[in-house]
Amino acid sequence: MNYNVVLSDEVREALEAGRPVIALESTIISHGMPYPENVKTALACQRLARKHGATPATCAIIGGELHAGLTDEQIHYLGYKGAEVRKVSRRDIPYIMAEGGDGATTVAATMFIAHLAGIKVFATGGIGGVHRGAETTMDISADLNELGRTPVAVVCAGPKSVLDIGLTLEYLETQGVPVVAFRTDNVPAFYTRNSGFKAPCRADTVEELSRMVMAMDGLMMGSGMVIVNPIPENYEMEPDKIDKATIKAVKEAEKQHITGRDVTPFLLKRIAELTNNASLDANIALVYNNVRLAALVAAGMHKTEE
Ligand code: PSU
Ligand code: MN
After folding, report:
1. Domains in the chain: boundaries
2. pTM of the full predicted structure?
3. Of 158, 190, 242, 285, which sits most exposed with the smallest number of CB within 10 A?
4. Tens digit of pLDDT for each residue in 160-210?
5. Which of 221, 227, 224, 218 is nearest to 200 (CA)?
6. CB 24 within 8 A of CB 58
């Protein structure tokens, strides 16, 4: 077995030269969006990262090996196979490695790979969190514990409304994870810019964010951070519309006894269907927005170091 992360040429060269690199996840490709939009979006994210000064390292497990930096063919493969590819969170890594299998990595598993590779900033759409009803189901994403134990900064558009946002923030506080909102006082809720929950801290410049990541890293805190970046205004969805679709999807999931790793992909798919794919356009726009910010933050860390 190969315990080293397999780096693409571009990622290896950037890391060796000390140039900015950002991680990108792959569950969003296989389970988070339909084909072919998923492949198009993943490739566009990579171009966008480069444009803003960072080398993209899309992470996944291929043939039992951990990868940071994929070829276009590998991205196409994960997107085309979609939900047939196993969704891999931290707990699944040893199994997939031992089997020599393929896996699309969640935020938790991508953070793990990014850290092994020496990558400190990571962009995605939404992180997992504490699900509504977690007081009985105990459904709390492994993403939150990973944030408490792995020093990688994750740029996202806030917890999705399928989650209990208040409990997600409490859990992150317990895990010692900073949640910093970019240019807003409130925690955004993925499709909408304001969840109604006040953010624990706020930053108005990329430089502040870069310095926060450097502090986390320099102090060797051993834990990560969340940068919440609200969806661009022109893509924001109507809270009512998204709430209705969310409540319906959550009820359906309960009724159909959807559990474990299937919950989040089921909810994402149903909400897209119930909103006639308006949620998909919003999802793509917010991911681009996050990739851009992550690239600037990573590049900013290098500037500040000089
Ligand atoms: N939220 C989204 N899109 C996604 C996910 C979450 O809006 O694609 C994916 C991410 O990969 C995240 C994972 O890490 O779902 C969380 O799954 P779970 O709740 O099973 O931990
Ligand atoms: Mn879960």
Report:
1. 6-305
2. 0.97
3. 285
4. 888 999 999 999 999 999 999 999 999 999 999 999 999 999 999 999 999
5. 227
6. yes
